Amino acid sequence: MPRSTFGGRHELGQNFLVHRSSLDILAALASSTTGPILELGAGDGAITRRLATTGRHVTAIEIDEHRARRLARVLPHVHVVHADALHHPLDAPVIIGNIPFHLTTPILRRLLSTHSWKHAVLVTQWEVARKRAGVGARTMMTAQSAPWFEFALRGRVPAWGFVPRAGVDGGILTITRRASPLIPLRERQRYERFVRDVFTGRGGRLDSIVRRASTLTSASAARALSEAGVTPRALPRDLDAEQWAALWRAARG
Predict the structure, then answer these.
(1) Three-class SS of residue 242?
(2) Nearest by Cα to 71 from 49, 99, 90, 51
(3) Beta-carbon contacts of residue 219 (< 8 Å; ≥ 6 apart)
(4) Ramachandran class of 219: left when φ > 0, alpha when ψ lies in -120 to 50, beta otherwise
C-alpha cells in the first residue's frame, strides 16, 4: 500500500481492528439503531464490511486516500469519502468508528458539541472508554455532557486485536443522546462552567467548593448536596448525571 500524503500508519495513528468478537459487538450495536450510518476512519474496511450488510445507507470516511480508493472499489454500495474525521460533517443519525487513539479527545469534543446524531459507537483506549462510561470515576468531560448524553461501556478489545498491535487495550464505548435532557440546552455553557469550577475547585469539602462555584450560601449548598443524595466528602468524579443536574438547578437559583 503506497504511503498517504498525510503520513504512514504511525503518523495517522492507524491500528486496524481485527478482533472478531469485537467486530461482532460493533455490528450488533449498529444493528440496534436506525437510520444512515457514518463510519469514522474506515481503514481497510473490517467494520465497513459488516455495516454494508445492514441494507442501510453507509458513508465511510478515511484519511488515507489509497485505502479510500481501494475500499470504494471493494464495496461499491458504500459511499466512501477521502476525508478527515476532525473536519468532515457529523451529519448522520448513527456514528461508528475505530478512532485513532491520539485523536480521541478532539473527536469526542466534536461529537459532543454536534446536534445532528443520535447514537455513537466508538472504539477508544480502554481507560478512556472506562472513564467516559463512569466505571470507577467520571471525568469532567463526561460530567459536562451527561445531562444530554448517556455513556456505556460495551466491551474490551485486547491490544493484540489490532494490526499493528496497539500499545494498550481498546474499549467499546456507546454514547446515546437523551430523548429528554436533564437540563435545557440553552443552559449548557453556564452548566459546563459550573462543572469545571467544581472539578477544579481547591481544598475543603464539596459543599464549600459548590458554594464558591455558585451564589449559594453555605446552608443552601449543604442542602443542595443533601437533596441530591451527595455527601459533603464526595469528590466531583463520584457524582452521576442526575446528581449534577440537581446541583445545577440549585446553583442557578
Answers:
(1) helix
(2) 49
(3) none
(4) alpha
Task: Confirm whether residue 8 is marked as ligand binding.
Answer: no
User: pLDDT (tens digit, 9 = 90+) per residue, 151-179?
Assistant: 999 999 999 999 999 999 999 999 999 99
Name residue 162's beta-bridge partners: 17
Rounded to an integer, what distance in angstroms lies between the CA atom of residue 163 and that of residue 145?
Answer: 32
17 is in an annotated binding site: yes
Q: Is 45 annotated as a binding residue?
A: no
Confirm or deny that 65 is annotated as ligand binding: no
Residue with cell 461499491: 76
Please name the amino acid found at residue 216.
Answer: L
Residue 41 marked in a binding site: yes
∠ Cα 35 32 152 (to 5°): 110
- The residue among 45, 8, 13, 52 whose CA lies nearest residue 30 is 52
Q: What is the CA radius of gyration of the chain?
A: 20
How buried is 93 (Cβ within 10 angstroms: 0-12 exposed, 13-18 middle, 19+ buried)? middle
Domains along the sequence of the chain with CATH: 9-177 (3.40.50.150), 185-251 (1.10.8)
Q: What is the pTM of this model?
A: 0.89
Please give the mean pLDDT across all residues of the chain. Answer: 92
C-alpha torsion 6→9→11→15, nearest 10: 130
Is 15 among the annotated ligand-binding positions? yes
Cα angle, residue 147 at apex, residues 106 and 185 outer, rounded to 5°: 85
The fraction of the chain above a pLDDT of 90, given in percent, is: 89
